[in-house]
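Forwarding these from the shared drive since the link keeps breaking.
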Amino acid sequence: MHNFKRDKNNRINQGDIFRQITHIENWKECRNELTISRICYPYVVILSQDCDLREAASVRSNTISDKALISVLAAPLYNFDLFLEGKHLQGLGIDNIETVSKSPQKTNHKNLIQNQNPRYHFLEDNTNVRLPKLVIDFKHYFSISIKYLREIRDENFVHPINFLYREQLSQRFANYLSRIGLPTEHETSI
């Protein structure tokens, strides 16, 4: 990551990092009482394609268009050190996750840092914006309202990922999602 300011057009971009993002995980209504389950992520990165975000920004707010985005894809950014300890999901009540990084032959975590594991994407720390080393788990992504992001942008926008690194992130995410899932031995015998 490099020290860049927000887009001069003041829009949301692919690769933008936001802090303190609340995600509505679930909600339930029972006897006129609404129960909401929320997750607050310390950091998230926007994964949606920049061309879609650019088109959405060009649509006037009072105009209905097929280019208007309702939501964007985002992924939580986990503290790399907590990830290595398997404690990156403690805020969700999940402790001691067995991560790929705990295998004895990979104690230097070089494969994660060099982005050689297709499931994870490592972001180097940047002292200019005081972010720790962060990692994305491509199995963890969610949709978030673009209206919500616009409303909180002034307070919660942290930093964009450099343009070239956004492309790399986008390609790696798309490749991970497009992998072919092979059936397990149990599924093939049925």
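-- next protein --
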Amino acid sequence: MPPKKEDKITLKQFKDKSSFWWLNNKVYHLNENNSVVFICGGERDEEEIKYLEEFCKRNKKSYCKREPSIFEQEEKEYNKIGFGKYFQMSTIELIAQDRKYASWIVKNSADKKLVEELKQLLKTK
């Protein structure tokens, strides 16, 4: 019978490069004091906390503030289209409905404020 393999530890940092970590499908956070705090995903495991603390020391990881999520940001007031077949539609609605028309406006409109907003929305959506 082959020897029993030890369980692997799976450690991944959140994609936003903040101080949040996935460790064996649990979420841990490295706080401002550079100590590890269990967030969610099961039961707190002292061995995992110790492992993450050692990993952070070894790799010189420190606290990094997380960008606010879309749910934490203030609701933005979008410009309205003042002409054409989408008259009075907001720019965000236009992007969702007709990206080609939004691109056309970017190339052909003289309204710089509208053009800049559409450029930003076309990049992010």
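The chain has two domains: 1-72, 84-124. The CA atoms of residues 21 and 107 lie 43 Å apart.

- D.
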